[in-house]
Design goal:
Blueprint: E1 7-13, E2 19-32, E3 37-44, E4 50-55, E5 63-65, E6 69-73, E7 79-84, H1 87-101, H2 118-127, H3 142-152, H4 156-168, H5 171-185, H6 188-203, H7 207-213, H8 219-225, H9 238-245, H10 257-276, H11 289-308, H12 310-321, H13 327-344, H14 349-362, H15 364-372, H16 377-393, H17 395-404, H18 415-424, H19 432-445, H20 458-469, H21 471-481, H22 492-511, H23 514-523, H24 525-530, H25 538-553, H26 557-565, H27 570-579, H28 585-599, H29 603-617, H30 625-650, H31 664-678, H32 687-712, H33 718-723, H34 728-737, H35 750-762, H36 769-777
Antiparallel strand pairs: 1-2, 1-7, 2-3, 3-4, 5-6, 6-7
């Protein structure tokens, strides 16, 4: 459908009384069988889907506003609005609505709005037949007019009747004429009545009346009426402010008269809402909703008109980035851009996306690199606000831009580094700008809002970029202030800045993995941060402690070994001792950290703390944390001892002599065989080979078993195997001694020495063990003796 007359935007009022954009499409009116009546249908422009299907009810109040808006309520507390591209389309649909309800299309509202109870509704309907008649607009009747208007506010139906009468009779202009007369005559009483009358007209909450009051020729008179508050001893000077003090600056000439008029009107109406009108009471809170809607739609229209003027925005950015632009001019340009972005907050997500794409294509980020580094405080503050708007809506836009800078921009001119530099160099004693900039960096570094589905490498690429090009700039003030054993500077501004940097680094520890780990380990960052535990500012001490706590919470053994090797609990224990048991946040935070180590049973840290700081911590008795930590440590040590003992007992056969003790019958058979064969050889010839053969086979099998056993044991247990293998020296003697009765075994041949040496290398002997073994074996072991004589 190409008919632009019927092109509309559909809005719905949310719980916060803000209009949500439900989409753009084309509206039509036709009979719907399912709803059994003429209905309004809005089909989406993009895909033709049905955005709205609303039956025109005979009793629903439809309002026509600003020639291109139709507003109504669907059920309870669900307001809808159609914003037409052209007035002609709005008129067509309005005529159709009025036709269904049997109303004259010249009216701006089709029904009386009834919101009260059934009883009140019945009472109102009984006396609503005659229209409200206003007294003649004369000075002498002002009190009567004021009382009449005040009495109508309590009934929604009477409010509607009153609003229609005021509009039809042109009563507002008549009242403004009386205002001029009262001012000329200095009639204070009449001016006070006019103040009350116009306040009540605002509370009628009718768009048609607002359009009359906010017209160029009447708005200042309306503001004048609201200057004479009876509760104020002297009249306000709102008109003077709007006409003389509030000056409109055209940083770039605006050629569109409609846009210019809309900007002036919106500023003045906003001023009336925020400053001139009294703060509404709880009961009046929703009585000015139409005024808020009036401002809302005006702002949306302003943003749209500026966006459509490509020449205007191009000229603005050209001057903003021009080196020849003077400081005052650049400040005005940035302030205008900030106001422009502020108005864009009224847009719905789809509109905002288009808005920020337009700004990005025109080069807003390169422009901000210049303005963020400006010396003028206002320029810098406004630039931070603009960047905040962009980052909060779409951080990916900023990330993409910074990644593109890698190849063609110096490090100090990269946007992220400019942001960090401005954070570090903030001259504000309270660091207001630095806090905002830290918030921007936090959003950019948050992996949660990195669009993995759109660009799978965004997280990896941006974090690589940040830790390669920017992290050193961020931690530079931290490293500079902790070069010695004590913090170099302790002024308030410095410690505030270090607190912000530590907060950001703590966020990185929690949400980034190996990037921040590499940085901490390579730069020994935790040690430097713990120097701040000696700061005189407790909040900075807590920031340093929080950073360490984030690291410990990861339960990462790399970090744990780094802490143990560097003895990095020492500064924490020192701070704990210096605190001397005072019941404060520092004391609780340190105790909580050790409580966490105990509860999570981080064995390496538990052992390190007890072994190195046990004497100091044993004296702490007002909490049970350290006693429980010591108990956990003792339990762990007992388990280790039990495991060692169990490991020794479970070694199958290598370290037990019983394996080598042969059955008595087997020994007798071997001895008999040895004696029988002995006679066939010369002296010594048969004895040595036979004995050596048995010994060699036995040693080979034993060494193989030992090798397999050592290979199978894990690294941690292999020392236990070797340490307990001192019995092996006696195992050899046991085997040899059991091979013969009544004498020493023959010495091994040179070929067998190799096997014996290997065996002795695999199983380490310790002094004193052989005596115990000999006692255990009950004399089985025979000391080596000279070669025995040949038996005949």
């Amino acid at each position: 459908m190409t008919d632009t007359r019927r092109r509309v935007k559909l809005y719905a009022l949310n719980a916060d009384r803000q209009w949500d954009d439900r989409g753009t499409g084309h509206v039509s009116s036709s009979y719907v069988d399912r709803l059994k009546g003429i209905s309004l249908l809005v089909r989406a422009e993009s895909d033709g889907s049905l955005l709205l299907e609303s039956k025109i009810q005979p009793d629903t109040a439809y309002q026509k506003q600003q020639d291109t808006l139709i507003v109504w309520s669907e059920g309870d507390n669900f307001d809808l609005a159609l914003s037409f591209q052209e007035k002609a389309g709005c008129d067509e649909i309005w005529e159709k609505i009025c036709q269904v309800q049997g109303k004259d299309p010249s009216v701006d509202i089709t029904q009386d709005i009834v919101e009260e109870s059934e009883d009140e509704r019945f009472d109102d309907m009984s006396d609503s037949a005659p229209p409200i008649e206003l007294p003649p607009c004369e000075l002498s009747r002002l009190e009567e007019i004021n009382e009449l208007m005040g009495s109508c506010l309590t009934s929604p139906m009477r409010k509607e009747k009153l609003a229609v009468t005021i509009e039809n009779e042109g009563y507002i202009r008549k009242l403004l004429n009386l205002f001029h007369m009262c001012e000329d005559l200095e009639n204070t009483e009449g001016l006070h009545y006019l103040y009350e009358i116009f306040k009540n007209i605002f509370l009628l909450n009718k768009n048609a009346l607002f359009e009359v009051m906010f017209a160029e020729e009447t708005i200042f008179d309306v503001v004048g009426c609201l200057e004479y508050d009876p509760s104020s001893p002297a009249p306000k000077r709102h008109r003077q402010y709007l006409k003389q003090l509030a000056r409109f600056k055209e940083v770039i000439p605006i050629s569109n008269p409609e846009l210019l008029a809309k900007i002036h009107q919106t500023y003045r109406v906003q001023y009336i809402q925020d400053v001139v009108l009294p703060t509404p009471s709880v009961f009046e809170d929703n009585m000015l909703s139409t005024l808020s809607s009036f401002i809302f739609f005006n702002k949306v229209e302003i943003v749209t008109l500026i966006q459509e003027d490509e020449k205007f925005l191009s000229e603005l950015f050209a001057q903003l980035t021009d080196e020849g632009t003077d400081e005052q001019k650049r400040r005005d340009l940035v302030l205008f851009l900030k106001e422009f972005c502020n108005f864009s907050q009224n847009l719905q997500p789809q509109g905002k996306e288009t808005f920020y794409k337009t700004l990005s294509s025109l080069g807003i980020l390169p422009a901000l690199e210049i303005t963020l580094a400006a010396d003028d405080a206002q320029t810098k503050t406004a630039s931070i606000d603009i960047l905040t708007y962009i980052v909060e809506f779409s951080p990916s836009v900023v990330r993409d831009y910074t990644l593109q800078q890698t190849s063609n921009t110096d490090e100090d001119q990269m946007l992220i580094n400019v942001v960090i530099e401005q954070m570090i160099c903030d001259n504000d004693p309270e660091l207001g700008g630095a806090v905002q900039l830290m918030g921007i960096l936090r959003i950019l570094l948050d992996p949660e809002n990195m669009l993995a589905s759109v660009n799978k490498s965004e997280k990896t690429d941006f974090l690589n970029y940040f830790y390669k090009h920017s992290i050193h700039v961020l931690i530079a003030p931290l490293l500079a202030n902790t070069a010695e054993d004590h913090p170099a500077k302790e002024d308030y501004q410095t410690v505030q800045l270090l607190g912000l940097i530590l907060e950001l680094l703590s966020f990185c520890v929690e949400h980034h993995t190996y990037h921040i780990k590499n940085c901490i380990l390579n730069k020994d960052l935790l040690r430097r941060i713990l120097v701040l535990m000696k700061s005189t500012h407790t909040f900075l001490v807590l920031c340093a402690l929080r950073f360490m706590r984030k690291i410990i919470a990861l339960k990462d053994e790399f970090y744990n070994r780094y802490i143990i090797k560097g003895n990095l609990f020492a500064p924490v224990i020192d701070a704990f001792v210096r605190n001397n048991g005072r019941y404060n946040l520092l004391d609780s935070a340190i105790l909580e950290m050790f409580e966490f180590i105990k509860l999570e049973d981080i064995k390496s840290l538990c052992s390190h703390v007890v072994e190195n700081f046990g004497k100091v911590l044993d004296d702490i008795e007002y909490v049970q944390t350290f006693k429980a930590l010591k108990l956990r440590y003792d339990q762990h040590q007992d388990k280790l001892k039990d495991r060692d003992r169990t490991t020794l007992d479970s070694v199958p056969s290598i370290l037990r002599n019983s394996r080598y003790r042969r059955d008595q019958r087997q020994l007798e058979e071997e001895e008999e065989m040895w004696f029988n064969e002995d006679d066939d050889f010369d002296d010594g010839e048969a004895v040595v080979p036979a004995a050596n053969d048995i010994l060699s086979k036995k040693l080979d099998s034993d060494i193989d078993s030992i090798g397999k056993m050592i290979d199978k044991k894990p690294d941690g247990s292999s020392p236990k195997l070797l340490n307990n293998s001192s019995k092996a020296g006696n195992i050899l003697n046991n085997n040899l001694s059991n091979n013969a009765t009544g004498g020493s075994p023959p010495s091994p041949t040179p070929g067998d020495v190799k096997s014996t040496t290997l065996f002795k290398k695999a199983l380490v002997d310790y002094e004193g063990d052989s005596d115990e073994e000999e006692e255990e074996d009950g004399g089985d072991v025979l000391s080596p003796s000279p070669k025995r004589a040949r038996l005949t």
